[in-house]
Design goal:
The complex is a heterodimer. By secondary structure, chain A is mainly alpha-helical. Chain A contains 30 helices and three strands. Helices cover 74% and strands 4% of the residues of chain A. Chain B is an alpha+beta fold. Chain B has eight helices and four strands. In chain B, α3 runs antiparallel to α6 (214-264). The radius of gyration of chain B is 26 Å and the shape is elongated. The chains are: A mainly alpha, B alpha+beta. Chain B: Involved in several stages of intracellular trafficking.
């Protein structure tokens, strides 16, 4: 195809755009036709910018592509490729509507990056803006329309967005609905798509512009990716490079087509004046651009949109290799958490064995749609010490990083002994039920925590059938004893460490937490005594009921006698009511408080952890200071032989100081995040439980009214 | 109304001039067919340390009084004196003499108040104020109850056809100086204690003697039975009330703590605390009512039994005397005369006793009815209040 023709295409297509706003477009258009194929893209980039609609994009554009090309970005892109590469690309493309289709798309995008070839791409880049690019669409007119009818396009777009996030399936879970919720958009896109190719002038941008700024972008993607989809659909497997045989494009493999699509982008960056010397990285830089272009425009909710776009440039800017990455991961997962169903319930407490070796086994059932699990529902049996073991593992791993690890219910030798002795009385049944509920809440808290959920131990705990027996959870085993000593030293050092707090937030929070802890403890005692008193009341009411019944039986006035026996019945019911209320007091309220007292312990532990890392940092700094002094001394004493050693030490300690400082910063950030999360959770939990509790109170009051109202006529009947 | 727990407790109270919900009915345990000829009430009371001074106000149309409307100050001891005087009057042996009002007991609320003052440091200010309020309310309730039982005593006397004409009673009402009744000295206290011993021993002996009148036989067994049971019931009701009170107190503490928690937590919790506080005071109110009712009721019943036992004992004594006389065949005429007297007395006693007992029965049934209805209504009312509060609270919680 003639370059000039394509140039005019573009020129005409951008007309409405220029109307709307942009001299930059005009500039670009004034550039020769050789680069013309990139123009639409530039338009796309410029247009939102001029509209001011998307800040991230501007950022990205202003950031040189070379920066964006940094390793993390590549990592991000590579990883999904590795993960998903097993999925048959073509198959998946055939069922584009299915969730999984994100993966193959990714593959498409990835593979060129990882293996397939800089070659075709290079080619493309070498002869950029040549007609090839324009060429492929041309013959494509109807097939493309077909594809569009199949709606792969809207999806095709998402993988691109999803790619840098590395969590394709996650995104897909919520996105398809949204994407399909805007069919209009894809429809118009479709129209445009066809119109582009039908009558390459005029229409292309006039419509999208009128509609929404996102359409051009969609168009671009569609333009780029449609051939891919088509190619895989049609796919008589590969002839060759489509550079050589432009018309052959549809017989070509998707991979090769895709680079073309991507390369269009990289060409664009070139027109922006960015050096695209390193083609490959550039592509990914562009991927970032695409993403951020995509996200603000996309109709996705801000939540979804803002996050992926924000973290994407971040890794590229901060040169630090891998650290920030897990963080973005976590953020994403946190989001995922809300979207995904993961129900855990603990049922069927069962006594296993006899005598003092007996233990209770609980059925842990999981229901989930999370892909990280092997199946959607599974059940395992766990005993109490397994839960403790899980906590130990999690705590060892995550507490040092400042995470708040939810603690399990305490061991209760008293309660368990009762169960072991095997008396099937009320209190042991109550104990078992209470523990079951506590364990359930504990486990739910664990899996609700985004980063803990990722822990392999958690997964193993939920999934694995034969759990290795957890050791050192015995109350007074050797390990337990060691731990006690550790704890003692910890609290000692806590007293000795005087931290001059730099961050007021932490100081305030810590005070808050401590005050709250005290209040909760107090409240817990109160509620306990309430439960006790209510039980007492229940017993007394029962006694009174009996006594009134006796009184009724000896009363010689029949009506009064009947009324009294009715009263006895009422009081009997009241006894029941009080008993139930006492139970709900303790279940709804006291247990909640107990949970939170334990949780606050963990919160404090995380604060302590922060302090410890701070201390380590300070120590390292002191050490460094000392080393420097020695160096100075050595210099003064003129001992060059030892000087080198000292210098080495200094570099070593400098590194350590930086490392520790970073650790401290990281832990601080985590603690802050965790505390905020904890508070949010706490408010929600309390609200939920208190509503529940109030409802139980309400119910008992309703019952009370019923009873007394039934009694009233009896009393009135006394004559 | 000023009240200071640590120093002199001085409460000036106009129990019925203000409505506080507690003084629902003047006559809780008795249904008084008041005629307008003699109306007595206690409009005012003053509490000074252990002594409570009641102002007894009388309104009458009877000519035996000098004025139609007058008030006198009386102390608890004066009431006891009046009661004892009535009991010791031979002529009234066949009557049910209303039970003497119990000694005012402000010790327990005062003690609690003291404890509260000691524990002030451990509580939040709000909690303390709330507890104090609660205790003051309790103190007030005790006070009112005391006034009420004294009033009821006088009213029962005034409504009794015979007792209302008693000389001592009229003196009690009218004499506007301090009665300065002699307090019982140690010997007398011991004497009365001894008398009680003899009486109860007597009762054991008497119980072996066959009752001549079926009515009394029945009444006796009934009352014995009833008395023991109602005693039990009262004890248990008291226990129940106490534990209910404990629950209510717990609620106060909980609500206070929750309140302080909610400062840094969730403002929605605050509402909750209010509810609990109200639940507490409502329960308190309701249960005091209940308790008082049973207390008074048992007093009436016990009193009746006591009177009845006395009547029986007298009768038995007279019989015994006659037997003795006959056995000795000496002074037979004298003995016969005495026996006749006793018989007469017993007959009279039986007659009036029958009347009294019947009226007691009716009174009891009416009182039970009234109180049971009141209690049920109160329970319903409180439960409904609580429900409304809880519902409001839940909605509030849910909305934010």
């Amino acid at each position: 195809m003639d370059p000039s023709l394509s140039a005019s295409d573009i020129a005409s297509s951008t007309k409405p755009l220029s109307e709307a706003s942009s001299p930059p477009v005009m500039d670009l258009l004034s550039e020769p036709a050789s680069e013309a194929s990139s123009a639409p893209m530039v338009d796309l980039l410029m247009e939102p910018a001029s509209e001011g609609s998307s800040a991230p994009m501007v950022d990205i554009l202003s950031e040189p592509a070379s920066e964006a090309s940094s390793a993390p970005m590549v990592d991000l892109l590579m990883e999904p490729a590795r993960e998903g590469s097993s999925a048959p690309m073509v198959d998946l493309l055939m069922e584009p509507a299915s969730e999984a289709s994100s993966a193959p798309m990714m593959n498409l995008l990835m593979e060129p990056a990882s293996e397939a070839s800089s070659a075709p791409m290079m080619n493309l880049l070498m002869e950029p803006a040549s007609d090839d690019l324009k060429e492929p669409p041309k013959p494509d007119i109807d097939p493309l329309a077909d594809i569009l009818n199949d709606t792969p396009l809207s999806e095709v777009k998402t993988p691109v967005a999803a790619m840098p996030q590395e969590t394709p399936s996650d995104l897909f879970d919520d996105e398809p609905s949204e994407l399909f919720a805007e069919p209009r958009q894809s429809n118009t896109a479709k129209q445009q798509q066809t119109s582009i190719f039908d009558e390459p002038d005029e229409d292309l941008f006039s419509e999208p512009l009128g509609e929404a700024s996102k359409n051009p972008q969609n168009d671009f993607f569609k333009e780029a990716l449609a051939p891919v989809a088509k190619a895989s659909n049609v796919c008589g497997p590969l002839s060759d490079n489509y550079n050589e045989h432009p018309t052959d494009i549809f017989t070509e493999e998707a991979m090769t087509t895709l680079p073309s699509a991507v390369s269009t982008v990289s060409v664009n960056s070139k027109t922006n004046g960015v050096h695209s010397d390193e083609e490959e990285p550039d592509i990914f830089a562009e991927a970032t651009v695409e993403l951020s272009l995509d996200s603000p425009r996309n109709d996705r909710k801000k939540k979804g949109a803002a996050k992926p776009s924000a973290p994407a440039p971040a890794p590229s800017v901060s040169a630090s290799a891998s650290k920030p990455q897990p963080k973005t991961l976590e953020e994403l997962e946190e989001e995922v958490e809300d979207k995904f169903e993961l129900n855990i319930s603990i049922t069927n407490p069962e006594k296993v064995g006899d005598g003092m070796n007996a233990y209770m086994a609980y059925k842990v059932s999981t229901q989930t749609t999370l892909p990280m699990f092997r199946s959607k529902t599974f059940t395992v049996r766990r005993r109490f010490s397994d839960f403790l073991g899980l906590y130990e593992k999690l705590s060892d791993k995550h507490t040092p990083n400042g995470y708040i690890v939810p603690p399990p219910p305490e061991k209760s030798i008293m309660g368990m002994t009762k169960v072991k002795v095997g008396k099937e009385d009320n209190s042991s049944a109550e104990f078992v039920e209470r523990r079951r509920a506590a364990l359930e809440r504990y486990l739910q808290r664990v899996v609700f925590h985004p980063s803990l959920l990722q822990d392999p131990d958690v997964r193993e705990f939920l999934e694995r059938d034969d759990m290795p027996r957890a050791h050192n959870t015995q109350a007074l085993s050797g390990a337990g004893f060691l731990k006690m000593i550790n704890r003692a030293t910890d609290s000692l050092s806590k007293m000795t460490i005087k931290m001059n707090e730099s961050d007021v937030w932490f100081e305030e929070k810590l005070q808050e937490v401590e005050a709250e802890d005290q209040q909760l403890r107090k409240l817990h005692i109160m509620v306990d005594s309430l439960v006790g008193h209510r039980k007492e009341l229940s017993v007394n009411t029962g006694g009174f009921a009996k006594s009134v019944a006796m009184l009724g039986s000896s009363e010689d006035n029949t009506a009064l006698s009947r009324a009294l026996s009715q009263l006895a019945e009422v009081e009997d019911k009241m006894e029941q009511l009080h008993q139930e209320q006492a139970a709900s007091d303790s279940f709804c309220f006291a247990e909640l408080l107990a949970d939170y007292i334990r949780l606050l312990g963990s919160v404090r532990a995380s604060f302590d952890q922060r302090m410890k890392t701070w201390q380590r940092w300070q120590d390292a700094q002191n050490m460094l200071q000392k080393k420097r002094e020695t160096e100075a001394k050595l210099l003064w004493a003129n001992k060059p032989d030892k000087l080198q050693q000292a210098k080495d030490d200094i570099t070593e300690w400098e590194a350590k100081v930086t490392q520790y400082e970073r650790d401290f910063d990281r832990v601080s950030a985590t603690v802050r995040k965790e505390v905020l999360r904890f508070e949010k959770e706490k408010a929600r939990d309390f609200k939920k439980q208190i509503i529940k509790y109030l409802e139980s109170l309400l119910q008992s009051q309703q019952q009370l009214i019923k009873y007394w109202e039934a009694f009233l006529p009896e009393a009135k009947a006394i004559a | 109304m000023e009240y200071d727990p640590k120093h002199t407790s001085t409460v000036v109270l106009k129990p019925f001039s203000q409505s506080h919900g507690v003084g629902v009915a003047r006559s809780v345990s008795v249904d008084l067919n008041n005629d307008a000829s003699l109306l007595i009430d206690i409009p005012d009371a003053l509490c000074e340390r252990d002594k409570v001074k009641f102002t007894v106000h009388t309104k009458t149309t009877l000519s035996s009084f000098q004025k139609p409307d007058f008030s006198v100050p009386r102390q608890h001891e004066d009431f006891i004196w009046l009661h004892d005087a009535l009991v010791e009057t031979e002529d009234y042996a066949g009557l049910i003499i209303p039970p003497a009002p119990p000694k005012p007991d402000f010790e327990s609320p005062r003690e609690k108040m003291h404890k509260l003052g000691e524990g002030e440091a451990t509580m939040t200010k709000e909690e303390y104020t709330k507890m104090k309020q609660e205790l003051e309310a309790e103190y007030l309730a005790v006070f009112k109850k005391t006034v009420q039982v004294h009033e009821v005593f006088l009213q029962r006397l005034s409504s009794h056809p015979i007792l209302s004409k008693d000389r001592n009673f009229q003196i009690f009402l009218e004499y506007d100086q301090d009665l300065s009744v002699r307090r019982k000295n140690a010997k007398e206290t011991f004497g009365s204690f001894f008398k009680n011993m003899v009486k109860s021993a007597d009762e054991v002996i008497i119980s072996g003697i066959k009752e001549v009148d079926d009515f009394f036989e029945q009444e006796k067994t009934f009352l014995l039975d009833y008395s023991s049971k109602i005693k039990d019931s009262t004890a248990r009701a008291e226990k129940m009330t106490r534990s209910h009170k404990n629950v209510a107190d717990d609620y106060i503490h909980i609500s206070a703590t929750l309140n302080s928690l909610s400062v840094d937590d969730n403002t929605a919790l605050k509402k909750f605390t209010n509810v609990e506080g109200r639940v507490a005071s409502d329960e308190e109110l309701k249960l005091t009512e209940l308790l008082r009712y049973y207390m008074l009721d048992i007093q009436a019943a016990k009193d009746l039994l006591y009177r009845r036992a006395r009547a029986l004992a007298d009768y038995e004594n007279s019989n015994k005397a006659l037997d003795k006389a006959r056995l000795k065949s000496k002074d037979i005429t004298q003995a016969e005369e005495h026996q006749q007297q006793c018989l007469q007395k017993f007959d009279k006693l039986s007659e009036s006793g029958k009347r009294e007992l019947t009226s007691f029965k009716g009174r009891r049934v009416v009182a039970f009815r009234k109180n049971l209805i009141e209690m049920a209504e109160l329970e319903i009312k409180h439960a409904k209040n609580n429900m409304a509060l809880l519902q409001g609270c839940i909605e509030l919680l849910k909305s934010n």
